[in-house]
Design a protein that fits this description.
Strand content: under 5%
Low-confidence stretches: 1-10, 178-198, 200-215
Order of helices and strands: HHHHHHHEE
Number of strands: 2
Radius of gyration: 30 Å
Number of helices: 7
Largest sheet: 2 strands, antiparallel
Mean pLDDT: 76
């Protein structure tokens, strides 16, 4: 859909903004998930976030190709954009991992005192059931993990919202390069015929061409 829309409208800025808004809404809804959230709800939230992210993630690369006329400059621009994307992802993962661990340390102690936060961190979310067989304690551990994940999603939502003003700097340029001119009626213009080729004459042979040769 992203490629089709861009090819038809040649409007990178609107689709980037729409994608960022959808992604921010989906990520913001993920903040509200908890242990009692139905599966269909968080699936819809994840689809919204992923759909919005997919609409705008590659748009900067398209804008770079339309901005630089020199092909060598395009390579440099794409390299810088790729580096920024990978560096941003690595920094984002580090920040959210620290948030997750910090929130787990504070939340586990609040929900239960029988299991240490370090034990929960080492076990991971999928192995919480191996730490205790008491339903109330297990529910408390899951609530602690849910609150910690919500905190990381707040960080992601803020980052997405901060990227929206940056998209306003994208120039509105077209990647399409016209190969033939089309007149206002929508039909291809009549080819220009050289004077020497009119009436069957050729400049190379100084004689008739085509069917008139045998006459």
């Amino acid at each position: 859909m992203k490629t089709w829309y861009t090819d038809i409208t040649i409007a990178k800025l609107p689709i980037m903004l729409v994608g960022q808004v959808i992604c921010s809404i989906g990520t913001g809804l993920l903040v509200m998930i908890g242990t009692q959230t139905p599966t269909f709800k968080w699936v819809i939230y994840m689809v919204l976030a992923g759909f919005g992210d997919g609409m705008c993630t590659n748009m900067p690369y398209t804008a770079i190709q339309a901005t630089f006329a020199d092909e060598s400059d395009t390579y440099i621009g794409n390299a810088i954009a790729t580096f920024a994307t990978l560096a941003g992802g690595a920094i984002g993962i580090s920040i959210r991992e620290n948030i997750l661990i910090s929130e787990l340390i504070s939340n586990v102690s609040r929900y239960t005192s029988t299991i240490s936060p370090q034990t929960v961190i080492q076990a991971g979310a999928l192995s919480l059931g191996t730490l205790t067989a008491i339903p109330s304690i297990l529910l408390g551990l899951r609530e602690a993990y849910s609150a910690a994940i919500s905190a990381t999603m707040i960080c992601a939502t803020v980052a997405i919202c901060l990227s929206i003003p940056a998209a306003l700097g994208i120039r509105q340029l077209s990647l399409k390069r016209p190969t033939e001119e089309v007149n206002t009626t929508g039909h291809m213009p009549t080819p220009v015929v050289a004077p020497e080729e009119k009436n069957g004459f050729s400049a190379d042979t100084n004689g008739f061409t085509g069917g008139d040769e045998g006459a």
